[in-house]
């Protein structure tokens, strides 16, 4: 099973491995700074679970969970509970 960004919990940090989806979605994610090799920290989810707030490249970004399902990641750090 491949781990995607939508599976991470707030506080977890990951690195992007691959972006799937149609050409328009991939282009939009790359334009927002989500590229293979970039580190992303999941900050929080909206009260109903969508969208999710991410921190990457020194800024915050909100994306839909459906878009996050297209981003394959590797977890770097887990939040201590």
From TrEMBL:
One Pfam family recorded for the sequence: FeoA
Record's keyword terms, sorted: Iron
Domain of life: Bacteria
Domain Ferrous iron transporter FeoA-like: 3-75
InterPro entries: Fe-transptr_FeoA-like (IPR007167), FeoA (IPR052713), FeoA_core_dom (IPR038157), Transcriptional_repressor_C (IPR008988)
Protein name as annotated: Ferrous iron transport protein A
Annotated organism of origin: Clostridium facile
Organismal lineage: Bacteria, Bacillati, Bacillota, Clostridia, Eubacteriales
